[in-house]
Automatic annotation (TrEMBL):
Lineage top rank: taxon: Bacteria
Protein name listed in UniProt: CRISPR associated protein Cas6 C-terminal domain-containing protein
InterPro entries: Cas_Cas6_C, CRISPR-assoc_prot_Cas6, CRISPR-assoc_prot_Cas6_N_sf
UniProt key word Electron transport: no
Keywords: Antiviral defense, RNA-binding
Database matches in Pfam families: Cas_Cas6_C
Entry's family note: Belongs to the CRISPR-associated protein Cas6/Cse3/CasE family.
Domain CRISPR associated protein Cas6 C-terminal residues, every copy: 137-254
Amino acid sequence: MRFLVKLQAARLSALPINYQSSLAAAIRRILSKSKLAATTFSHEEGYRQDAGLFSFSNMNCAFKPEEDRLWLLNKELSFFLGLHLPEQMESFVIGLFQYERLFVGDELTTTSFKIKALEPLPGPEYTSEEGGFASLLVRPVSPVALHNPSNTAFLFPEEPGFTDAVNTAWRQKIAATYDAATAENALLTSKIAGAANRTRFRFASIANEDGTTKNIRGCLNFVLKVTARKPFLHLLLNTGMGAYNHQGLGFLEVVPA
C-alpha cells in the first residue's frame, strides 16, 4: 500500500541535507509502537525491516539550502510512503500514523513534524500482456541506486547491465517476501522506455548498521517498463527499485501508459 503523508512542522527550522536516515528511523519508531505492525514486519511474516521492504520518497517542501542544512520556508510538507502489507491493513496503518510526530534531524538541528493525514494513493492501471502477465511504466521519484555485478560501482540506465541489476534487486525482494524458489522462477522483464538526454544522478549519505555513513550515487530522469505477475509488480511499487529503499531511495511513481 502507498500513501501521501502530509506533515506540519512545529516551526521553520532546518533539516540536514542527508535527512533520509533520520526519517527512516522515525518511520520504524512508529511501526514498532504496534505489536501487530511489529509482528507483520517480523522474519516469520517475510517483512523484515532489514530487508528494506518499505520505501519512501524525499520530502516535498520549499527550502533554502545553506551549507549542509535545508532551511524550511513553509511549515507544510509531504512525502510518499510505501509499505508492503495486506490491503486489509490500510485503515490500521492510517490510524497508526495519523497524528503521530516525526522527529527528523541530527545532533545539530532536529525538527518535529506532526502527521496531519495519510492519503492512500490510487492503485495502478496495469497493461495486460500475453500469458496472464501485466506491465507498468514507472519512473523514480527519488534516486535509484544499483550496483554492478562486482559491487564496485553504481550503474546508469544507459549502461549495460542496468536492467539486469533492476531484476536482481527485485528478485531479492521476492525471495525475502515469498521464498527462494518463487524468486528464482519469477519471470521479470525490465526495459528502458524513455530517458532524458542526460540522466541525472544524485549523491546521498546512507547510514550503516555500525553507525558510520557512506556516500552512494542514485539516478533519476528515466522511465522503465516492467513486466511480471501483478503481485510482483505490486511488491516493486510498495518497496521501491534498487537498493537502500528503506533509507529513501528508489521510490517509484506510475507513468500513464
